[in-house]
C-alpha cells in the first residue's frame, strides 16, 4: 500500500514534467524570434527548426516516461532494491544536470522543470525497499 502511494506520486510528477515540456515545445515552436535566431545561427528553414524543437521535446520526455513506465510495470514483479533506486536516481540526476546546463534563465519552464526533477528524484529515492519478511516493507 505504501509503495502504491509512492508510484502515484512518481506518476503525477512524471506527467507534470511531460506537460511542462509540451508547453515549452509549443511556445518555442510558435516563436518567430527563436526561429530567426535559429536561422541566423544555422541557416536552416522552418522544417529544420521544427525538427530541432521536436527532437529536444522527445529528449525531454523520454526519461520520465521510461522511468515511470518501468516502475509501474516492474514494481510488482521485480520489487524495489537499492540498486534499482541508485540507477533510476542516477538517471534523474543526469537529466537534472543536463537541464541545468542549458541555462535558460529567462524561461519559467526552466525553473519549474528543475523543481519537478528534484521532486522526481526525491520520490524515487524514498520508495520503500522490498523486504523478504512479509510483515515489513
Secondary structure layout:
Layout (H helix, E strand, L loop, with lengths): L1 H29 L1 H11 L3 H33 L3 H19 L7 H18 L12
Please tell me about this protein's structure:
- The protein has 137 residues and is mainly alpha-helical.
- Helix content is 80%, strand content 0%.
- It has five helices and no strands.
- It has helices at 2-30, 32-42, 46-78, 82-100, 108-125.
- α1 (2-30) packs antiparallel against α3 (46-78), α1 (2-30) runs antiparallel to α5 (108-125) and α3 packs antiparallel against α4 (82-100).
- The longest helix is centred in the middle third of the chain and has 33 residues, at 46-78.
- The chain is elongated.
- The model has no long low-confidence stretch (mean pLDDT 85).
The tally of strands reads 0
Instruction: Assign the structural class, choosing from mainly alpha, mainly beta, alpha/beta, alpha+beta, or little secondary structure.
Output: mainly alpha
User: Which series of helices and strands comes N to C?
Assistant: HHHHH
State the major sheet.
Answer: none
Number of DSSP helical runs: 5
What's the shape? elongated
